[in-house]
Amino acid sequence: MVNIAVLGYGTVGSGVVEVLRTNQESINRRAGQEINLKYVLDLRDFPGDPVEEILVHDYNTILNDDDVRIVVEVMGGVNPAYQFVKDALLKGKSVCTSNKELVAKHGAELLEIAKNNKINFLFEASVGGGIPIIRPLNQSLTADEIVEISGILNGTTNYILTKMSKEGLAFDAVLKEAQELGYAERNPEADVEGYDACRKIAILSSLACGHQVDYEDIYTEGITKITDIDFKYADKLGVTIKLIGSSRKVEGGFAAMVAPKMISKEHPLAGVNGVMNAIFVKGNVLGDVMFYGAGAGKLPTASAVVSDVVDAVKHMGTNIMTIWNTRKAELVDIKNVSTRFFVRIKGSMNEKLDKANAVFKGKAVTVDGLDGEFGYVTAPMTEKDYSSAAAEFNGIISMIRYEG
Ligand code: HSE
Fold it and tell me: Which of 46, 118, 250, 270 is the most buried if burial means most Cβ atoms within 10 Å?
Protein backbone atom coordinates (compact mmCIF):
# COMPACT_ATOMS: atom_id res chain seq x y z
CA MET A 1 0.00 0.00 0.00
CA VAL A 2 1.22 3.49 -0.84
CA ASN A 3 0.04 6.44 1.25
CA ILE A 4 -0.51 9.75 -0.46
CA ALA A 5 -1.52 13.25 0.67
CA VAL A 6 -3.36 15.93 -1.30
CA LEU A 7 -2.46 19.60 -0.72
CA GLY A 8 -5.48 21.78 -1.43
CA TYR A 9 -9.16 20.76 -1.46
CA GLY A 10 -10.33 23.22 -4.10
CA THR A 11 -11.67 22.35 -7.54
CA VAL A 12 -8.78 20.13 -8.64
CA GLY A 13 -8.12 18.70 -5.15
CA SER A 14 -11.71 17.59 -4.69
CA GLY A 15 -11.54 16.22 -8.27
CA VAL A 16 -8.50 14.13 -7.34
CA VAL A 17 -10.35 12.69 -4.33
CA GLU A 18 -13.37 11.96 -6.54
CA VAL A 19 -11.29 10.26 -9.26
CA LEU A 20 -9.48 8.13 -6.67
CA ARG A 21 -12.82 7.04 -5.21
CA THR A 22 -14.65 6.53 -8.52
CA ASN A 23 -11.94 4.43 -10.17
CA GLN A 24 -10.31 3.02 -7.04
CA GLU A 25 -10.18 -0.58 -8.25
CA SER A 26 -8.77 0.04 -11.73
CA ILE A 27 -6.33 2.68 -10.47
CA ASN A 28 -4.95 0.26 -7.87
CA ARG A 29 -4.71 -2.48 -10.48
CA ARG A 30 -2.79 -0.22 -12.85
CA ALA A 31 -0.51 1.05 -10.10
CA GLY A 32 0.22 -2.51 -9.01
CA GLN A 33 -0.73 -1.80 -5.41
CA GLU A 34 -3.31 -0.02 -3.28
CA ILE A 35 -3.19 3.79 -3.19
CA ASN A 36 -4.39 5.09 0.16
CA LEU A 37 -5.35 8.73 0.59
CA LYS A 38 -4.02 9.41 4.10
CA TYR A 39 -4.34 13.20 4.37
CA VAL A 40 -5.92 16.20 2.68
CA LEU A 41 -4.45 19.57 3.60
CA ASP A 42 -6.53 22.72 3.49
CA LEU A 43 -6.91 25.82 5.65
CA ARG A 44 -10.69 25.45 5.55
CA ASP A 45 -13.00 22.92 7.20
CA PHE A 46 -15.53 20.92 5.20
CA PRO A 47 -18.30 19.89 7.63
CA GLY A 48 -20.29 16.94 6.35
CA ASP A 49 -17.73 16.04 3.69
CA PRO A 50 -16.16 12.57 4.19
CA VAL A 51 -12.77 14.23 3.67
CA GLU A 52 -13.11 15.78 7.17
CA GLU A 53 -11.84 12.49 8.64
CA ILE A 54 -8.45 12.91 6.97
CA LEU A 55 -8.30 16.72 6.83
CA VAL A 56 -5.27 18.42 8.36
CA HIS A 57 -4.41 22.13 8.60
CA ASP A 58 -0.71 21.84 9.34
CA TYR A 59 1.60 20.78 6.50
CA ASN A 60 4.17 19.44 8.96
CA THR A 61 1.81 16.55 9.76
CA ILE A 62 2.26 15.37 6.17
CA LEU A 63 5.90 16.32 5.80
CA ASN A 64 6.97 14.51 8.97
CA ASP A 65 4.95 11.36 8.28
CA ASP A 66 7.42 8.95 6.67
CA ASP A 67 4.53 6.74 5.57
CA VAL A 68 3.44 9.39 3.07
CA ARG A 69 5.37 8.56 -0.11
CA ILE A 70 3.59 10.80 -2.62
CA VAL A 71 2.39 14.39 -2.22
CA VAL A 72 -0.18 15.79 -4.66
CA GLU A 73 0.10 19.58 -4.88
CA VAL A 74 -3.04 21.16 -6.34
CA MET A 75 -3.08 24.44 -4.40
CA GLY A 76 -1.90 26.65 -7.28
CA GLY A 77 0.31 29.73 -7.07
CA VAL A 78 4.01 29.77 -6.27
CA ASN A 79 3.77 30.48 -2.54
CA PRO A 80 3.62 28.45 -0.39
CA ALA A 81 3.43 25.66 -3.00
CA TYR A 82 7.10 25.97 -3.95
CA GLN A 83 8.36 25.53 -0.38
CA PHE A 84 5.90 22.70 0.32
CA VAL A 85 6.92 20.83 -2.83
CA LYS A 86 10.63 21.38 -2.32
CA ASP A 87 10.43 20.21 1.30
CA ALA A 88 8.49 17.10 0.27
CA LEU A 89 11.06 16.21 -2.40
CA LEU A 90 13.95 16.80 0.01
CA LYS A 91 12.22 14.41 2.43
CA GLY A 92 12.16 11.74 -0.30
CA LYS A 93 8.49 12.04 -1.24
CA SER A 94 7.50 12.11 -4.91
CA VAL A 95 5.34 15.06 -5.95
CA CYS A 96 2.59 15.26 -8.57
CA THR A 97 1.32 18.74 -9.38
CA SER A 98 -1.08 20.59 -11.66
CA ASN A 99 0.54 23.93 -10.85
CA LYS A 100 1.77 25.61 -14.06
CA GLU A 101 3.24 28.69 -12.32
CA LEU A 102 5.30 26.47 -10.06
CA VAL A 103 6.47 24.18 -12.86
CA ALA A 104 7.26 27.03 -15.28
CA LYS A 105 9.29 28.88 -12.65
CA HIS A 106 10.96 26.10 -10.66
CA GLY A 107 10.53 22.94 -12.79
CA ALA A 108 14.23 22.44 -13.54
CA GLU A 109 15.30 22.81 -9.90
CA LEU A 110 12.54 20.52 -8.59
CA LEU A 111 13.34 17.88 -11.21
CA GLU A 112 16.97 17.94 -10.12
CA ILE A 113 16.06 17.41 -6.47
CA ALA A 114 13.80 14.52 -7.49
CA LYS A 115 16.58 12.97 -9.57
CA ASN A 116 19.09 13.22 -6.71
CA ASN A 117 16.64 11.54 -4.34
CA LYS A 118 15.55 8.77 -6.77
CA ILE A 119 11.97 9.96 -6.62
CA ASN A 120 9.73 11.78 -9.11
CA PHE A 121 8.40 15.24 -9.78
CA LEU A 122 5.51 14.86 -12.22
CA PHE A 123 3.35 17.57 -13.76
CA GLU A 124 1.15 16.14 -16.51
CA ALA A 125 -1.81 18.36 -15.53
CA SER A 126 0.16 21.60 -15.69
CA VAL A 127 -0.30 21.92 -19.46
CA GLY A 128 -3.46 21.05 -21.35
CA GLY A 129 -5.43 19.86 -18.27
CA GLY A 130 -6.54 16.30 -19.06
CA ILE A 131 -4.63 16.04 -22.36
CA PRO A 132 -1.57 13.78 -22.14
CA ILE A 133 1.31 15.90 -23.45
CA ILE A 134 4.11 15.96 -20.86
CA ARG A 135 4.47 12.17 -20.72
CA PRO A 136 4.28 11.81 -24.54
CA LEU A 137 6.99 14.46 -24.94
CA ASN A 138 9.17 12.88 -22.29
CA GLN A 139 8.58 9.21 -22.95
CA SER A 140 7.01 8.66 -26.38
CA LEU A 141 8.49 11.18 -28.79
CA THR A 142 12.03 10.32 -27.78
CA ALA A 143 13.16 9.22 -31.27
CA ASP A 144 12.57 12.69 -32.64
CA GLU A 145 14.10 16.10 -32.58
CA ILE A 146 11.13 18.31 -31.78
CA VAL A 147 11.05 21.06 -34.37
CA GLU A 148 7.77 22.68 -33.41
CA ILE A 149 5.20 22.72 -30.65
CA SER A 150 2.16 24.91 -31.29
CA GLY A 151 -0.90 24.85 -29.15
CA ILE A 152 -4.25 26.22 -28.25
CA LEU A 153 -3.38 26.21 -24.58
CA ASN A 154 -6.12 28.31 -23.04
CA GLY A 155 -9.78 27.35 -23.03
CA THR A 156 -11.18 30.72 -22.04
CA THR A 157 -9.65 32.59 -24.97
CA ASN A 158 -10.49 29.77 -27.38
CA TYR A 159 -14.11 29.95 -26.25
CA ILE A 160 -14.15 33.71 -26.81
CA LEU A 161 -12.51 33.53 -30.25
CA THR A 162 -14.76 30.66 -31.34
CA LYS A 163 -17.88 32.65 -30.36
CA MET A 164 -16.59 35.77 -32.11
CA SER A 165 -15.87 33.73 -35.22
CA LYS A 166 -19.14 31.82 -35.37
CA GLU A 167 -21.54 34.52 -34.18
CA GLY A 168 -19.84 37.72 -35.37
CA LEU A 169 -19.87 39.14 -31.84
CA ALA A 170 -17.51 41.74 -30.33
CA PHE A 171 -14.81 40.73 -27.81
CA ASP A 172 -16.36 42.57 -24.83
CA ALA A 173 -19.80 41.04 -25.35
CA VAL A 174 -18.42 37.50 -25.52
CA LEU A 175 -16.14 38.01 -22.52
CA LYS A 176 -19.10 39.22 -20.45
CA GLU A 177 -21.16 36.20 -21.47
CA ALA A 178 -18.24 33.86 -20.74
CA GLN A 179 -17.94 35.38 -17.26
CA GLU A 180 -21.66 34.95 -16.63
CA LEU A 181 -21.43 31.29 -17.66
CA GLY A 182 -18.42 30.79 -15.37
CA TYR A 183 -16.01 29.98 -18.25
CA ALA A 184 -14.01 33.16 -17.75
CA GLU A 185 -12.71 34.43 -14.41
CA ARG A 186 -14.04 37.67 -12.87
CA ASN A 187 -10.50 38.93 -13.39
CA PRO A 188 -9.77 37.51 -16.85
CA GLU A 189 -6.37 39.14 -17.31
CA ALA A 190 -4.22 35.99 -17.06
CA ASP A 191 -6.28 34.33 -19.77
CA VAL A 192 -7.09 37.16 -22.20
CA GLU A 193 -3.62 38.73 -22.04
CA GLY A 194 -2.02 35.35 -22.82
CA TYR A 195 -0.13 34.95 -19.52
CA ASP A 196 -1.64 31.51 -18.80
CA ALA A 197 -0.73 30.23 -22.29
CA CYS A 198 2.73 31.77 -21.87
CA ARG A 199 3.49 29.67 -18.76
CA LYS A 200 2.30 26.55 -20.56
CA ILE A 201 4.40 27.11 -23.68
CA ALA A 202 7.37 27.89 -21.42
CA ILE A 203 6.99 24.41 -19.85
CA LEU A 204 6.66 22.70 -23.25
CA SER A 205 9.61 24.67 -24.66
CA SER A 206 11.78 23.71 -21.68
CA LEU A 207 10.97 20.05 -22.29
CA ALA A 208 11.60 20.38 -26.03
CA CYS A 209 15.00 22.01 -25.66
CA GLY A 210 16.08 20.48 -22.33
CA HIS A 211 16.96 23.81 -20.70
CA GLN A 212 15.13 26.38 -18.59
CA VAL A 213 12.95 28.62 -20.75
CA ASP A 214 11.92 31.60 -18.62
CA TYR A 215 8.38 32.70 -19.36
CA GLU A 216 9.43 36.32 -18.93
CA ASP A 217 11.53 35.87 -22.10
CA ILE A 218 8.58 34.79 -24.24
CA TYR A 219 6.94 37.49 -26.32
CA THR A 220 3.28 37.44 -25.26
CA GLU A 221 0.29 39.15 -26.82
CA GLY A 222 -3.33 38.50 -25.79
CA ILE A 223 -6.62 38.68 -27.65
CA THR A 224 -8.08 41.93 -26.30
CA LYS A 225 -7.43 43.81 -29.53
CA ILE A 226 -9.08 41.24 -31.79
CA THR A 227 -12.32 42.59 -33.25
CA ASP A 228 -15.36 41.26 -35.10
CA ILE A 229 -13.99 43.07 -38.19
CA ASP A 230 -10.83 40.96 -38.07
CA PHE A 231 -13.02 37.87 -38.35
CA LYS A 232 -14.73 39.33 -41.45
CA TYR A 233 -11.32 39.60 -43.11
CA ALA A 234 -10.39 36.14 -41.84
CA ASP A 235 -13.47 34.66 -43.51
CA LYS A 236 -12.59 36.32 -46.76
CA LEU A 237 -9.03 34.97 -46.54
CA GLY A 238 -10.15 31.41 -45.68
CA VAL A 239 -8.40 31.52 -42.31
CA THR A 240 -9.44 31.63 -38.68
CA ILE A 241 -7.97 33.44 -35.68
CA LYS A 242 -6.59 31.46 -32.74
CA LEU A 243 -4.43 32.34 -29.74
CA ILE A 244 -1.37 30.19 -30.41
CA GLY A 245 1.46 29.43 -28.02
CA SER A 246 4.33 28.28 -30.16
CA SER A 247 7.90 27.18 -29.90
CA ARG A 248 9.82 26.53 -33.10
CA LYS A 249 13.31 25.45 -33.90
CA VAL A 250 14.80 28.09 -36.16
CA GLU A 251 18.37 28.93 -37.10
CA GLY A 252 20.13 29.70 -33.83
CA GLY A 253 17.74 27.97 -31.44
CA PHE A 254 14.09 28.06 -30.38
CA ALA A 255 11.75 30.97 -31.07
CA ALA A 256 8.80 31.08 -28.69
CA MET A 257 5.77 33.32 -28.71
CA VAL A 258 2.15 33.63 -27.61
CA ALA A 259 0.01 35.67 -29.99
CA PRO A 260 -3.26 35.61 -31.88
CA LYS A 261 -2.61 34.25 -35.35
CA MET A 262 -4.56 33.86 -38.56
CA ILE A 263 -4.18 30.19 -39.43
CA SER A 264 -5.47 28.31 -42.44
CA LYS A 265 -8.83 26.60 -41.93
CA GLU A 266 -6.99 23.44 -43.07
CA HIS A 267 -4.54 23.61 -40.13
CA PRO A 268 -5.29 20.89 -37.52
CA LEU A 269 -5.59 23.57 -34.82
CA ALA A 270 -8.24 25.51 -36.78
CA GLY A 271 -10.96 22.99 -35.93
CA VAL A 272 -10.30 23.15 -32.18
CA ASN A 273 -13.26 25.10 -30.87
CA GLY A 274 -14.91 26.26 -27.66
CA VAL A 275 -13.08 25.54 -24.42
CA MET A 276 -11.10 22.64 -25.93
CA ASN A 277 -7.29 22.71 -26.10
CA ALA A 278 -4.93 21.03 -28.53
CA ILE A 279 -1.19 20.72 -28.91
CA PHE A 280 0.37 20.17 -32.31
CA VAL A 281 3.87 18.70 -32.31
CA LYS A 282 6.20 18.32 -35.29
CA GLY A 283 9.09 15.86 -35.02
CA ASN A 284 11.89 15.71 -37.55
CA VAL A 285 11.28 12.04 -38.31
CA LEU A 286 7.73 11.45 -37.08
CA GLY A 287 6.15 14.44 -38.79
CA ASP A 288 2.97 15.87 -37.29
CA VAL A 289 1.00 14.66 -34.28
CA MET A 290 -1.75 16.40 -32.38
CA PHE A 291 -3.10 15.98 -28.86
CA TYR A 292 -6.67 17.18 -28.30
CA GLY A 293 -9.02 17.34 -25.35
CA ALA A 294 -10.29 19.13 -22.28
CA GLY A 295 -7.63 21.62 -21.24
CA ALA A 296 -9.17 22.47 -17.89
CA GLY A 297 -11.96 21.48 -15.53
CA LYS A 298 -12.16 19.55 -12.31
CA LEU A 299 -12.24 15.93 -13.49
CA PRO A 300 -10.08 16.16 -16.65
CA THR A 301 -7.33 17.92 -14.67
CA ALA A 302 -7.72 15.50 -11.76
CA SER A 303 -7.49 12.58 -14.19
CA ALA A 304 -4.06 13.80 -15.34
CA VAL A 305 -2.92 14.33 -11.73
CA VAL A 306 -3.99 10.81 -10.71
CA SER A 307 -2.24 9.35 -13.78
CA ASP A 308 0.94 10.92 -12.38
CA VAL A 309 0.26 9.30 -9.00
CA VAL A 310 -0.04 5.93 -10.74
CA ASP A 311 3.25 6.60 -12.56
CA ALA A 312 4.93 7.62 -9.31
CA VAL A 313 3.78 4.39 -7.65
CA LYS A 314 4.96 2.30 -10.60
CA HIS A 315 8.37 3.98 -10.45
CA MET A 316 8.87 3.94 -6.70
CA GLY A 317 12.62 3.95 -6.02
CA THR A 318 13.58 5.06 -9.54
CA ASN A 319 13.65 8.46 -11.14
CA ILE A 320 11.95 8.84 -14.52
CA MET A 321 14.61 10.75 -16.41
CA THR A 322 13.37 14.13 -17.59
CA ILE A 323 15.77 16.29 -19.56
CA TRP A 324 15.16 19.84 -18.35
CA ASN A 325 18.15 21.34 -16.60
CA THR A 326 18.59 24.69 -14.86
CA ARG A 327 20.82 26.14 -17.62
CA LYS A 328 18.90 29.03 -19.11
CA ALA A 329 17.83 28.55 -22.73
CA GLU A 330 18.67 31.50 -24.92
CA LEU A 331 15.64 32.04 -27.11
CA VAL A 332 16.05 33.49 -30.57
CA ASP A 333 15.06 37.16 -30.55
CA ILE A 334 11.68 37.25 -32.28
CA LYS A 335 12.73 40.47 -34.03
CA ASN A 336 14.74 38.20 -36.33
CA VAL A 337 11.93 35.70 -36.93
CA SER A 338 10.06 35.87 -40.24
CA THR A 339 6.33 35.58 -40.76
CA ARG A 340 3.58 37.20 -42.78
CA PHE A 341 1.40 39.90 -41.26
CA PHE A 342 -2.24 40.78 -41.84
CA VAL A 343 -2.77 44.52 -41.46
CA ARG A 344 -5.84 46.69 -41.62
CA ILE A 345 -5.07 49.96 -43.36
CA LYS A 346 -7.16 53.09 -42.92
CA GLY A 347 -8.01 55.05 -46.07
CA SER A 348 -8.80 54.33 -49.68
CA MET A 349 -7.25 51.36 -51.39
CA ASN A 350 -6.91 53.32 -54.64
CA GLU A 351 -4.66 55.81 -52.93
CA LYS A 352 -2.65 53.49 -50.72
CA LEU A 353 -2.29 50.21 -52.58
CA ASP A 354 0.81 51.16 -54.56
CA LYS A 355 2.64 52.18 -51.42
CA ALA A 356 1.45 49.06 -49.57
CA ASN A 357 2.70 46.88 -52.44
CA ALA A 358 6.04 48.66 -52.45
CA VAL A 359 6.54 48.34 -48.69
CA PHE A 360 4.88 45.04 -47.81
CA LYS A 361 5.09 43.20 -51.15
CA GLY A 362 1.96 41.15 -50.50
CA LYS A 363 -1.71 41.23 -51.49
CA ALA A 364 -4.74 43.32 -50.59
CA VAL A 365 -8.07 41.99 -49.34
CA THR A 366 -11.40 43.78 -49.10
CA VAL A 367 -14.63 42.98 -47.31
CA ASP A 368 -17.96 43.97 -48.88
CA GLY A 369 -19.62 46.82 -47.04
CA LEU A 370 -16.51 47.78 -45.09
CA ASP A 371 -15.60 51.27 -46.21
CA GLY A 372 -12.73 53.57 -45.35
CA GLU A 373 -10.20 50.76 -44.92
CA PHE A 374 -8.79 47.67 -46.58
CA GLY A 375 -6.81 44.63 -45.49
CA TYR A 376 -3.37 43.57 -46.61
CA VAL A 377 -1.35 40.38 -46.18
CA THR A 378 2.36 41.07 -46.35
CA ALA A 379 5.07 38.92 -47.89
CA PRO A 380 7.15 37.03 -45.28
CA MET A 381 9.31 39.53 -43.41
CA THR A 382 11.09 39.67 -40.08
CA GLU A 383 9.32 41.21 -37.08
CA LYS A 384 11.99 43.91 -37.09
CA ASP A 385 11.44 44.80 -40.75
CA TYR A 386 7.69 44.77 -40.27
CA SER A 387 7.90 47.11 -37.26
CA SER A 388 10.00 49.68 -39.09
CA ALA A 389 7.86 49.47 -42.24
CA ALA A 390 4.65 49.81 -40.21
CA ALA A 391 6.01 52.77 -38.25
CA GLU A 392 6.54 54.66 -41.50
CA PHE A 393 3.30 53.56 -43.16
CA ASN A 394 0.60 56.01 -42.36
CA GLY A 395 -2.74 54.52 -41.27
CA ILE A 396 -2.18 51.00 -39.93
CA ILE A 397 -5.20 50.20 -37.76
CA SER A 398 -4.10 46.80 -36.44
CA MET A 399 -1.94 43.76 -37.16
CA ILE A 400 -2.33 39.99 -36.72
CA ARG A 401 0.38 37.47 -37.61
CA TYR A 402 -0.68 35.43 -40.63
CA GLU A 403 0.12 31.77 -41.17
CA GLY A 404 -2.61 31.00 -43.70
N1 HSE B 1 -7.91 29.50 -17.23
C2 HSE B 1 -7.35 28.36 -17.90
C3 HSE B 1 -8.05 28.18 -19.24
C4 HSE B 1 -7.52 27.14 -17.03
O5 HSE B 1 -8.98 28.93 -19.55
O6 HSE B 1 -7.65 27.34 -20.03
C7 HSE B 1 -6.45 26.13 -17.16
O8 HSE B 1 -5.15 26.59 -16.91
Answer: 270
